[in-house]
Amino acid sequence: MNRKKIIIDPITRIEGHLRIEVEVDEDNVVKEAWASGQLFRGIETILKGRDPRDAGLIAQRICGVCTNVHYRASISAVENAYKITPVDNAEIIRNLTTLSLFVQDHVVHYYHLHSLDFVDVTGAIEADISKAVEVAKTFSDSPFKCSASHLKGIQEKLKKFISAGRLGLFANGYWGHEAYKLSPEENLIHMNHYFEALEIQRELSKAIAIFAGKTPHPQNLIVGGVTSVADMLNPDRLNQFMFIMKETRGFIKRAYLPDIHMVTKAYLDDMKQGTGRGLGNFFASGGYQFGKQQMLFESGVIFDHQFNELEPFNLDHITEHVNRSWYEGDEVNPYKSKTEPFYTDLNDDGSLKTEGKYSWVKSPRYKGKAMEVGPLARMMVGYLKDSPIIKPVMQQWMDQYKLELIDFSTTMGRTVTRAIEAEICNEYIFDFISDLIENIKYYNEETWTKYQFEDLPKTSRGSGIYEVPRGVLSHFVDIKEAKIANYQVIAPTTWNASPRDDKQRGPYEESMIGLKLNDPNNPLEVLRVVHSFDPCLACAVHVMDIKGKTIAEYKVNSMCAI
Amino acid sequence: MRILIVGGGIASVYTANKIKELRPQSEVVIVSDESYMPYDRIHLCRLVDKSTPLSDITLELNPEVIVELNCKINAIDKESKRVISEHAIFKYDKLIIATGSKPKTLFNIKHLKNVSTFRSADDSYKIADEIKDKNVVIVGVGPIGLELLDTLIGMKEPKSITLISQNDRLYDDYTIDHNIVALMKQAFSEDSRVQILFDDAIIDKEILDNQVLKVITKHSTIEDPFIVFGVGIMPNIDFSKETLETDKGVLVNDFMRSSDPNIYAVGEAAQLISSGFVAGHVKSCINQADVAIATIFEQPTEPFKRDISIDALKVSSFMLNDVSSPFYNPKDKANETILISSEEENRIDQYIINQDRLVRFIGINTNIDLLHLSQMMQKQEVVDPSYFYQNRLVGERGPLVCCCEGSYELDLIDMIKENAVTSFSELKPFTKAGRVCGRCKMMISDLISQTPIDPMEAKRLKEERQKKAKEAEYAKIQARIQKYNTLHPHNEISTGNLESALEIFDKNREFNKWVSMLTADLKLHPDYEPLVKEGVEHLNKVPIIWLELADCSGNSEGFIKNVNPSVEDLILDYISLDYHELLMAASGDNSENALNSVIENDQYILMVEGAIPLGLEGKFLRIGSKGETGVDLLKRVAKGAMAVFAIGSCALDGGVVAAAPNPTGAVGVSEALGRDDIINLPGCPVNPINIVGSLLHFLMFDELPKLDAKNRPEWAYSYRIHDNCERRGHYDMDEFVEEWGDEGAKKGWCLFHMGCKGPYADLNCPLVKFNEGTSWPVQAGHGCIACGEGKIAFDKYANHRRIEEEENES
Questions:
Q1: Residue B78 counted as domain residue
Q2: Is B242 within the bounds of a domain?
Q3: Do B585 and A210 touch (CB under 8 A)?
Q4: A64 to B554: CB separation less than 8 angstroms, yes or no
Q5: What is the ipTM of this complex?
């Protein structure tokens, strides 16, 4: 059979340096696929030998997109090692910051990193304005900024932009591609919200900055608590936070969700045909407690789309493999990972050595299986565990479009569940604020758990496991002589972008198999599948022990993929 | 804290004022053995000829400083922290000795009516009262002696004036050239009452009833004299000899601390252990005071270092200028002298160079730009002796009047005329000239009285100057805009479709609002708004390539959070962001083609985010279908760029990626390219305001914004975080957070004790804040980690401990 290799590098509209290689047959159907992280930085190596209390400020720089979640997971791993429980208020403030990031991240991901896989920018200039106003009303009772005059303004702006000839960010896009299915009016509504979403993500960043000082790379966490006590006690700051969340709730309900309905309708066939379906192995670690023992997310493990056999999640089943990654070493427990960088280069023509090692991303496995994590996994697990928060929303979508749970295990399913999750996070964040106000009302103003560093154990280990926007994030710290002896991160993208092993492909790779491309020179379909995972490669790449070997031999153990 | 300062001169007053400025709550007491409020000894001659009352040379002192006069200190009791005078005892927490010098004499003059030193107001009054019809003898030819001589020449009282030099020089024992001495001698000798005796000395005298009747020198006999000793000075520190380690002066370390941790000495009373140096110029005294104060209040400070001194001696018949490097050693045999003189202008310039470096300059009636010489000494520029013959460094703005402020005579005259200044005090709002050390105060007063002013003319001059400056600026911008009109971006904007391209600019309130904001951020006058606006409109024509290398996308994430202008306005209307992996629609080959098309066809600006890994031959990072390494891609794209901006701390020097042990051998853009013209915008991430502002500056003015030594735009990076911090007041009040979440934390007190590194970081964070001014790390109660300082931030600053603690631990 005559196969053709397509290399897509750089994959843009993601965080980090990702390469995708696919092989297509004569009918342009993808028969094989490889995903490769192309940058190694070694943040874990840098963390070794440092004071455990300092880990957070360095670990957060693993990623500038997921910035506050690495910060938090790192601080939590150290707290876990020292058996320090942060006080209630500190936990709430951390949750407020993380949940704002969920909403911000999902909005930015859909509109700025993903929507151009569905939206033809040039199509928008042909839209009929009055028709567009009507179309918008079919997806929402009060569409977000979709008046005739507003839409006309956007269209004029786009027209002039395009006629002036310099397309900037939109240059060389896949405009006119057959895989674009939205009508000109729908394209215009989406582009309108593309620009409005920039404003909304700025507002959400302000919400994060209220308690975290700034974003990206906030500065408000310390081992044992948070520092922003003055902001917490300032009613104006709390009010400002709530005001922003109310504003963004309007955007999500009147723009984001209606737009997702719009693409769901347009691509419903793809969804039912299983386009972009992966291995069917999912897990979620759950978390975010509020009120009286309520949990925002549930935990559980699904194998091979067997929805009737949900297993409990257990950290001990996680192992890491490096057979196909640029490291040396064996299957290992994350605490003891001794993998070392071992770069075997690319082929002379610049393509991946697909028979051997080919990525800086390692292969974490759960009970030996490659797993998919993220909003899809969380929403599925929540649905199966009858979460009162998640199940009703999922059920509504399933009823409206006559969908089965397995239909969500697709490109569209990932995109839909991400929007559902944004809605949930934005909605329930008010319950977390209520908890905080309740505490302050009864004079609980504590933000830090006191300890004497000198009295803490000199040798210990701990982990910080969190659901974060792209899936389950785990930080592991091993402390010896009061210094970091080993540090390991398994980020959501490490799971999703992992390369294959002897038995199976990685989740990205598997989800591309069977994909039919309209035009191999413009592989829009591939981008759509990959983007639906919301890749973040800076996070995904992680290293191990240098173990006395010199850097010249390239033994590193941490890497980040977007 | 109670701080006691002993002494009544400039060093003492400067120290007291400075302490009150920094720590208003400190109690500051000056103890002086004189009966007058502290005054400026530089102008004592004015008391001799009675041209100025003492009140005019009294130093400005913060009214809250307590002054105890007529208290001669006899001893220090360092155990109980107090000093003892004849009638009183003063307690202190910190003691600063600023007693200056006392004059030397050749014999005991205590009860003699017609002998005096020349060091105090009382000395001046005595000279003024007693010299009538006397044969005045001035022993010593230093600057003070010469100035007194000049003053006396202007008075009719003295019958004759004899100046005694023990060698063949005037002004300076070793260095000054004979030609200059001759010129000075000639100038002084125009008064027939004056005789100057060289190689002479007093060898005998006759005294009767506490009156010297006659002095006998080696070459001469002078009857009915009045003798003034100007033979040198020595530190005035007798009271401290029993308690402190002393030599000539009170021995101090480089932070001006004496052998007792609570006692400091500054100015002429102090002697540095390390070099033996004793200050002689006001500038050194002031610098020493700054170091001592910083040390007392535990602020970070550099140790005291000797500076270049600039001196001037202006007498009626000539002007003598002296610039001296701290490296100048008069006895060094390797010194070479270059003399350039003009008989016509009565001018002599004497340069002394040592190992091809200028170390001293003495000029009489010189027209050389002294500040320029001082900079040459500062930079230790290598010069060939012939340089001074070939390059006359003539000051075009007249003689340097105020050495401290660098004010030239013609500039001051313009200032006086333009602002219709009629007195020294009226000049205050316009310049600090004459107010730093005070030496030139009288020269400036003279300038003011000699300069005729006319209010109408003043107004006209002012307008004319402003107009000229503005015209020059506008001309620059016009040229800039024209240049960009001739550029050809590949979107083929022509005059035809330029209009339609420009129409998309939303010329509404929003647009005007952020033009104003940006104008303010760039520290430009509002008058420049139209220029900023034009600059902004032209941004759209300049393609921008944004490369992400070994990064975390934090700076890109930050960039899309910019307001004024917002990123949607930026990318649609004002810049052409042609390549940005995080945001661009195209991937793979399509994106690479977009990049190559810009590189080949356009003038473009390159922005680089992230470090550059050089380890593994650069293969820790590969981009594109051919697997090009990050460093190769950077080199390829940087080659044709109009300007390269290094965005964020990783691009500065590798940042966190290069933190120890730097696993991937990461470096910054400048090092990777081997270029020193990269514009650095560090920060982790950099505040987007600083990106947009710097970019705009470059486009508007066709030149880089003014950069500092680390190639960072001064408009954003010349502020120490600590100096502009909203919590600075608490620092000054000694109010610190001592534990996370304590009462101080709730009240927003200073975070220095919690490891805030604001004192070690230069950035505008407290001024502009983040996320539309919502907050910044100090506001969030965390403190600064100096993230803009590059990789050192992650090896040294990013923690919650004070630096001293760190050093003590290690």
A1: yes
A2: yes
A3: no
A4: yes
A5: 0.93
